[in-house]
Amino acid sequence: MYRKETCCFLETDYQESFDINQQLNHILNLLDPHIEKLKTLRMKHSLNFLFSFSIRIMHNETPAITIEQKAIGIAYDLNAEFDFDLYIL
């Protein structure tokens, strides 16, 4: 049976932070040794990559939402997108 779509998750547990780069850098450090293989798989299988963030805003204390150069470079190499979901609690 041929599957058109599938997904794989690499995530952090909930962490209180005012800077999403803390969590993003954790994920990027796990991915870093595998970037070339991921690029090859992307080309071979026409894969799409997405960095998705679920941000919980509590007490009107908004986090910094900036993406550092390292993440931009890796996203560029993987032709990845960024998605931000904000939840105001």
Q: Kindly name the structural category.
A: alpha+beta
Low-confidence stretches: none
Q: Gyration radius, to the nearest Å?
A: 15 Å
- Strand order in the sheet with the most strands: 1-2
The number of helical segments is 3
Query: First CA to last CA: what distance?
Result: 43 Å
Order of helices and strands: HHEHE
Share of helix among residues?
25-40%
- Quick one: overall form? globular
Which keywords apply here?
89 residues; alpha+beta; two-stranded parallel sheet; 36% helix
Characterize this entry briefly.
The chain has 89 residues and is an alpha+beta fold.
Could you characterize the architecture of this molecule?
The chain is α+β, with helices and mostly antiparallel strands and 89 residues long. Helix content is 36%, strand content 18%. The chain contains three helices and two strands; from the N terminus they run ααβαβ. It has helices at residues 21-31, 35-45, 69-78; strands at 50-57, 81-88. A two-stranded parallel ribbon has the order 1-2. Helix 3 links the parallel strand 1 (50-57) and strand 2. The chain is globular and about 45 Å long. The N and C termini lie far apart (43 Å). The model has no long low-confidence stretch (mean pLDDT 88).
Describe the secondary structure blueprint for this structure.
Blueprint: H1 21-31, H2 35-45, E1 50-57, H3 69-78, E2 81-88
Parallel strand pairs: 1-2
